[in-house]
Amino acid sequence: MAASRSLALSIAGLVLLAANQGMAADNERGAQLAAMCASCHRLDGRDQGIPSIVGIDKKDFDDAMAAFKSGARSSSIMHAVALELSNAEIALLGEYLAARPKESKLR
Amino acid sequence: MSWTRRKFGGFASTSLVAALGARAARGQAKARVVVIGGGIGGATVAKYLATSSAKPYVALVEPKHQYTTCFFSNFYLAGLRSLESLTFDYETLARKYGIDVIHDTVTEIDPVAKMVTLASGAKIGYDRAVAAPGIAFRQGAIEGYDEVATQIMPHAWNGGPQTKLLRRQLESMEDGGVFVIVAPPDPFRCPPGPYERACLVAYYFKQFKPRAKILILDAKDTFFEQDLFEDGWNRHYPGMIEWLPGQFTGGVKSVDVKSRGIKTAGETFNANVANIIPAQIAGELAQRAGLADQSGWCPIDPMTFESKLQPGIHVIGDATSAGDMPKSAFVANSQAKACAFAIAAALTGSEQIALHLFNTCFTLLAPNDAVSDAINLKPVAGLIKITDIFFSPVGESEEMRRRAAHQAEGWYAAFTHDVFG
Q: What pLDDT was estimated at residue B10?
């Protein structure tokens, strides 16, 4: 009884581990993509001249990137960035940024 | 007491690694990465390695305790910013990210034993080394422009004392004087830099020395964003800035420090203040460590930034020969991230994901008139190629230019935070 319970627990653990690994890989890729953003956008939620993007709503992010890609929103820099990223990368980045908490806004 | 402990600990760890070699160190504990040079590329790669999933031991070897950015130093020359506002230290990198910041100079890299030797005699074994040696000036490119001459006719192409010296000279120049900028041949650090310098020094002159002139003696016949600059010069500083291309003067051949004379193939120009920016090559360490080829620059693998000449050593920043990538702080930062992720993947045995390489640049024509450019780059068949490039157009609205100037300030704050914060 104890043995089968611990087996069940360890299987559940393995399933969780596998899921965590998939999430960890996505998170790692999200972090790598966000690292590019960090050259202009601070990732601690502070901003000065260039808007903060952490904690941004995923749909707002997707819409903004689509507008930059099409040129509906004008910015040569963001147009270049939006062209460079694939749709899958934009989706991943949106999830990563949305999940990232805004830190203190104190200066 | 704490001095003794630190001293002993430092000695013990370095000598232990020296005795065991890099392989034993690897089997024992963390992977080890030594970053040589604490400029933009070096500081960025150290930070992103330290926060990577590989979690290696990261040493950052840099002789100076503070770094003054060369980008935005034209603001200082114009009197718009203090030098302190452009100066950063390494304390956050050490404290927040656990980077072992070592203020020393690398005297030797042994790529076979995978060991760097410091001027203090200490040795550090590594699994991977990253060199970020920046630029040096090509010796003999301009006759008479030696170390002593830099104290009279500054290059101000590294941030710090040189920038300060040039500002002091501009301040003490009399109204009606001539400020000469000698602009280098390609490739060189910061392609718009000399021309932005003309703009922002002109902005200073316009207020305090309105009869002063600026003469640019260029090695080249065209320059980066020329139409944008010429438009800005005409609108903001009419009649103040003159640019002479290489084909007109035959190029600068020599300088005379006593008269501040600048001799071209034809005429000699006498300056009241002279800013000599000579032809460039990869920094001194690159030459000494066999990382540079005959061109003077360092050939690299465009995916990993590993040297094509010395396996196990990566090179990033201005020192690299990186295809279409310009030499800029932004590029150094972009390369550093790609390099950090490639090293982390190699250390953990995971797959390296396709990287994105960018350059963006804000250039000030006047304090409220900035232009920007954006470049996407990609490794294609072993070379880094431009895939998209965008520039601000001539004749943009004042509002757009004002907004870009505001963004430039925000970019500087965010960018330096990304590197040092």
A: 36
Indicate if the pLDDT at residue B11 is higher than 70.
no
> CA-CA distance, B90 to B103, in Å (whole number)?
10
CA B323 to chain centre: 17
CA atoms within 13 A on the CB side of B55: 3
Report whether B99 contacts B50 (CB < 8 A).
yes
Mutate to test the interface with B, among A48, A52, A85, A90 (most CBs of B within 10 A): A48
Closest-CA residue in chain B for A48?
A: B410
- For B399, the enclosing helix (H) or strand (E) is helix B398-420
Mean pLDDT of B118-123: 97
| pLDDT (0 to 100) of residue B29 | 77
Q: Is B89 helix (H, G, I), strand (E, B) or coil?
A: strand
CA atoms lying within 13 Å on the CB side of residue B384: 26
- Of B25, B41, B353, nearest to B33 by C-alpha is B25
Comparing alpha-carbon positions, the chain B residue that sits nearest to A26 is B353
3-class SS of residue B255: strand
What is the C-alpha to C-alpha distance for residues B194 and B229, in angstroms, rounded to an integer?
A: 11
Among positive and negative, which fits the CA dihedral B143, B286, B389, A59?
Answer: negative
Structure pTM?
Answer: 0.90
Average pLDDT over residues B286-302: 97
Q: What is the DSSP letter of B306?
A: B
Task: Measure Cα distances from A48 to A56, A102, B83 in Å.
Answer: 16, 15, 20
Q: Which of residues 377-416 of B touch A (CB under 8 A)?
A: 387-392, 406-411, 413-415
- Cα separation, B244 vs B302, in Å, equals 36
Going by their DSSP bridges, the two strands B123-125 and B115-118 should be labelled as antiparallel
A49 part of contact set with chain B, CB < 8 Å? yes
B80 Cβ contact partners less than 8 Å away, ≥ 6 residues apart: B200, B367
Q: Which among B32, B20, B26, B58 is positioned nearest to B128, based on CA atoms?
A: B32
Rounded distance, CA B275 to CA B77, Å? 12
Q: Quick check: B201 and B77 in contact, CB under 8 A?
A: yes
Angle, helices B40-50/B398-420, rounded to nearest 10 degrees: 60
Segment B305-355, tens digit of pLDDT = 999 999 999 999 999 999 999 999 999 999 999 999 999 999 999 887 778
The whole-number pLDDT of residue B167 equals 98
Pair B392, A31: CB distance under 8 Å: no
Question: B359: which strand partners?
Answer: B375
Tell me how many degrees the CA angle B234-B236-B240 measures, rounded to the nearest 5. 65
Choose the closest CB to A35 out of B337, B408, B411.
B337
In whole angstroms, give the CA distance from residue B305 to residue B41: 12
